[in-house]
Amino acid sequence: MKTIGIIGGGIIGLATAYRFGQRMTGHKVVVFEKEAAVGQHQTGHNSGVLHAGLYYKPGSNKARLAVEGIRQMVAFCAENGVKHEICGKLVVAATEAEVPRMMDLFERGKANGLRDLRVLDRHAMAEIEPHAGGVQALRVPEEGIVDYAGVCAALVRKMEEHGNEVRTGARVTGLQETGSGWRIQTPTGAAEVDFLINCAGLHCDRVAALGGVKREMRIIPFRGEYYLIRPERQHLVRHLIYPVPDPAFPFLGVHFTRLIHGGVEAGPNAVLAFAREGYTKRDFVPADLWDALTFPGLWKFLQRYPAVSWYEVKRSFSKQLFCESLQRLVPAIEAADISPGGAGVRAQSMLPNGDLVQDFLFADRPRALHLLNAPSPGATASLAIGDEVVSRVQKYA
User: Minimal CA–CA distance to 267: which of 278, 277, 253?
Assistant: First the structure.
């Protein structure tokens, strides 16, 4: 029996292990997770949105896997009793100048295969989100919210039913290619596997380097900070309210999200984190910061987006500025209505020229496959990504 070793026990690593258990039943699958439990980083620090594939370039991996992935994820949740809700989303054009970009999203969504998209005028918007601002909106009915921690628990349960396992507390410290596969070194000893899958998220570039892959790209950690809406003001948001992306800004922008276990979240912004797992402003890991600051691509990125980058830093320290951004979507929201919430760190791959890697990025190597970029909608698309990985590995099996 051959063994598949998967590094990373986030939702993508677990979904990939689950798909191997379904489709390659003659193999043993072992997930190596450095933390004491699965799903502790990107998976456990997001707002639980199910993304339908609206924003992504038609024909890209992101578009294809997001559209396939949300339908697979909804089916998985229904079959396994994981809490989820398809509540729909409004993408709001705050001004007339944003309407053409919103219509571009409408066409992109149709090209990606999204169902029942609708352009709404002010009256129709108010029927769905009475407190939303803007002049028009795009209704995306397939989007929703989910308990990703519940998804991870179900994935672990299902993969164990197939005789596979998750090893927690198993930080990978070394990789050595053997004649027939790989030796994975952890603090508790070494393990031999026939095929290696790198789903290490925030550390995927470092794991790939251990496996002999040149680090031409680099994970640059951007922290996204959230605010919570006070309970008595949560009626201002019924579903999901998102902006039309600004092409001058490399990230999506702040938005409103209903949470699956109750409450409403607003955010995130995007600021450079001083640690790859830096969820507060005080978190600082010298090696992580040095890794970012010595990468030429970061400086080229900052030169390309100086005003936006500086504004993001100021907004990180100013509740009033954050609130003003939110008021473009929901004018009635006030600074007194929000309080600091959690934060997540986006594992964003960046190229030496300062470009952000926009698509999911796979690197195929002999008896190894490295997933080198899988930020949002990675969680939504995780089961479809797992299918993609299995299909690639089957070529070598």
Answer: 253
Res 397: pLDDT: 57
The rounded distance, in Å, linking the Cα atoms of 163 and 252 is: 40
Global pTM reads: 0.96
The continuous run of DSSP H or E covering 85 comes out as strand 84-85
Q: What pLDDT score does 396 carry? A: 67
Tokens of 284: 């600082």
How far is CA 94 from each of CA 121, 173, 300, 301, rounded to the nearest angstrom?
Answer: 12, 49, 30, 27
Domains assigned to the chain: 2-48+149-216+358-394 (3.50.50.60), 89-141 (no CATH), 218-356 (3.30.9)
Compute the distance between CA of residue 327 and CA of residue 325 in angstroms, rounded to an integer. 5
* pLDDT at site 147: 98
Alpha helices per DSSP H over the chain: 11-23, 61-80, 99-111, 122-128, 148-161, 204-210, 286-293, 296-304, 306-317, 319-327, 382-394
Closest CA to 53 of 109, 12, 131: 109
Burial-class residue 205 by CB neighbours within 10 Å (0-12, 13-18, 19+).
Answer: buried
d(CA 344, CA 382): 18
Q: CB burial class (10 A; 0-12, 13-18, 19+) of residue 366?
A: exposed
- Is residue 17 a contact partner of residue 156, using CB atoms and an 8 Å limit? no
| Nearest C-alpha neighbor of 40 from the set 159, 188, 202, 163 | 202
CB 277: neighbour CB atoms within 10 A? Answer: 18
The 3-state DSSP class for residue 32 equals strand
pLDDT at 379: 97
Chunked mean pLDDT (size 10), the chain, 397 residues: 95 97 92 97 94 93 95 98 97 97 96 97 97 98 97 97 95 94 95 97 97 95 97 97 87 93 96 97 96 97 94 95 97 97 95 95 93 94 97 80
Helix (H, G, I), strand (E, B) or coil at 213: coil
